[in-house]
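Progress against Task 2.4 (sequence-to-structure conversion) is shown through the following example record, which the project officer requested during the mid-term review.
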Amino acid sequence: MNNRLGMKKGKILLVEDDPNLGLITQDYLEMIGYEVILEIDGAKGLESYLSNSFDLCILDVMLPKKDGFTLAADIKKTNSDIPIIFLTAKALKDDKITGLKIGADDYITKPFHTEELSLRIEAILKRVNRTKHNFNIILSVGNYQFDYLNLSLKSEIAEYSLTRKEADLLKFFAENINQVVTRENMLKQVWGDDDYFLGRSMDVFISRLRKYLKDDPTILIQNIHGTGFKLTVEE
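Structure tokens generated for the chain above:
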């Protein structure tokens, strides 16, 4: 189990104001092979993020000086692709939805098992690494050209810069044009889980895609009641 002397799996920013939980979590993650920088407030967390290069951030929601949601939003302004996991002492639905709308990849409610945290970190980093190693993919969606790797969607009259999640979701749709896709399959392919709150977040991203694609009347993202969605493109 001890991997302190082995190759590092990645560098993590951990921002947690409970010193005991922070140190225990840092020690465990370092033991299994991660490099971890621990900060105890949101302001220090942002300072560390801006002065280092991280593969993933783990942020407590309730932080002094700058709360976790604000910290995450500041981090996403500098790098929209950085994976973020929220730690929350509350199982409140609104908190989880707020975090997912900001662009968080996951959330864990305290108290949690360190092994569960490590498994979620590994799953997220695997998805990120698969994306990084994808060849550049340019797909046609109606009158649009979709450059997956460069997060670009353009037509003759409009051009949009996508977030990584928007691009992942549109790629899934584009690879299944005119086919019904289930909510569960979409969530597992794009988010890695079919959790209810991730589903609410996915609905927000689908609404954004509809806005981007509205200039082409041949394109429609349909809700298929009780099943999922269908991206139709008329010939």
